[in-house]
Structure formats: structure tokens, C-alpha cells
Specification:
It contains 8 helices and no strands. It is mainly α. Among the domains are: about 70 residues; about 70 residues, no CATH class. Helix 1 crosses helix 2. The protein starts with a helix and ends in an 11-residue tail after the last helix.
Length: about 210
């Protein structure tokens, strides 16, 4: 029963929105869609709490074992405790005198710069991946390189200086070949998501069961 009950609940929860979509009755929409959404919010709240507890346990265990990177675990726990305390007891937003509450100050001047730094590092990975992808090895790589050069040159003033038609060619590449490729990728991803959803609905795929 420990396996059958979660599978049945997952099947019921996945079938209800489908029924509400194909049968747009007010009663069906209220029970199979709106109430289910409210229950999902409640369940997600408990899942968030479990995730917090799991994060604390994992990092405490890592610190006790002095595992590799245990210093970062200390930073995680300290910053988590500070942000939780500031958020629960310190208030948010601005005070009457215009100064920021500690939670808002930490978010704007600590979290946001760190987040910006992390995303800025992605530029180097993109440049490295572009270098590997644009190496002329076959016909596909050659077409990719030509298209990238057209787009990059056509988006800067140098393209107009080379020839007035270069920006128009770059716009055509973005509007037609690029859009066609994007739609193909989106359609493929949608078909994959649909097939995966059907496998979850019928109980073939059970990612929510973990390794059990």
C-alpha cells in the first residue's frame, strides 16, 4: 500500500486538470481545477518546509564530517538563519525615515549583487560553447558560423558600413530560419512533455517515488 496509494493520488491529481480542460462546466472547474490548485499550494508549502529541513540536515552532517567544502555549508546556514530572522521579525521594505529594513538591505545589497555576478559568469561559458560550436568541422557547423556572423555583424553599425543590406539580411535570418528552428524545438519539447505526462498519469513513470 505504501507504493499504491502515492501512485493513485498522482494519477487522480494529473487526470483532474485534464477533465476540467475538456469539460468546462462550472462545477467541474471549481472542484477539479480551483480546489486542486488550492490544495497544491498547501502541499507545496509543506514541501518547502521539508526542503528547508533537509537542507539544514545535509549541511550540518557535512560540517560534522568536515567534508570537502564544509566551510560553504557554514556560510549557507548562517546566511539562511540571518535572512529567516530578518524576514520573520525584522520587517521588510523601507522605514519611515527612508532607511531599509535588514531583510530588504540584505536582499538588495548582498543577494542581488551575488546573483548578478553568477549570471555574469555565464557569459564566459557561452563564449566557450560558441567557440566550440562555431568551429568549421562540417556543413552544419559552417551554416551555424555563417548565420552567427550575419547576426552579429548585422546588429552593429559595422554591418551598415559593410553594406546597407546586411541589417536586412540579419533581420530575415532572425525572422524566418531562427523562428522556424525555435518552433521546431518548442514542438519537440511539447511532444516530449506530453508523452512524459501520459507516462506519469498511467503510473509508468514515478519520479515522485524516489529510488524506492
Amino acid at each position: 500500500m505504501k507504493r499504491q496509494i502515492p501512485i493513485m493520488l498522482a494519477i487522480i491529481a494529473s487526470v483532474c486538470p485534464v477533465i476540467a480542460f475538456f469539460f468546462p462546466d462550472r462545477w467541474i472547474n471549481e472542484w477539479f481545477n480551483q480546489r486542486l490548485d488550492a490544495w497544491m499550494v498547501i502541499i507545496a508549502s509543506f514541501a518547502l518546509l521539508l526542503g528547508i529541513v533537509s537542507m539544514i540536515q545535509v549541511n550540518i552532517h557535512k560540517i560534522r564530517r568536515r567534508a570537502r567544502g564544509w566551510g560553504f555549508s557554514i556560510i549557507i546556514l548562517v546566511t539562511f538563519t540571518l535572512m529567516a530572522a530578518f524576514g520573520l521579525f525584522g520587517g521588510q521594505g523601507e522605514r519611515a525615515d527612508g532607511s531599509l529594513y535588514p531583510f530588504t538591505w540584505m536582499f538588495q545589497f548582498v543577494f542581488s549583487p551575488l546573483q548578478a555576478t553568477m549570471f555574469s559568469l555565464l557569459a564566459f561559458y557561452v563564449a566557450s560553447a560558441s567557440y566550440r560550436a562555431f568551429r568549421v568541422r562540417n556543413v552544419e557547423a559552417t551554416l551555424l558560423l555563417i548565420g552567427a556572423l550575419i547576426i552579429m555583424v548585422g546588429r552593429i553599425p559595422l554591418g551598415t558600413l559593410i553594406h546597407p543590406l546586411v541589417p536586412d539580411i540579419a533581420e530575415w535570418v532572425m525572422k524566418f530560419p531562427n523562428t522556424a528552428a525555435q518552433r521546431g524545438i518548442i514542438i519537440g519539447a511539447a511532444l516530449g512533455a506530453a508523452s512524459m505526462s501520459v507516462r506519469v498519469m498511467v503510473g509508468i513513470e514515478r519520479p515522485y517515488m524516489g529510488k524506492s
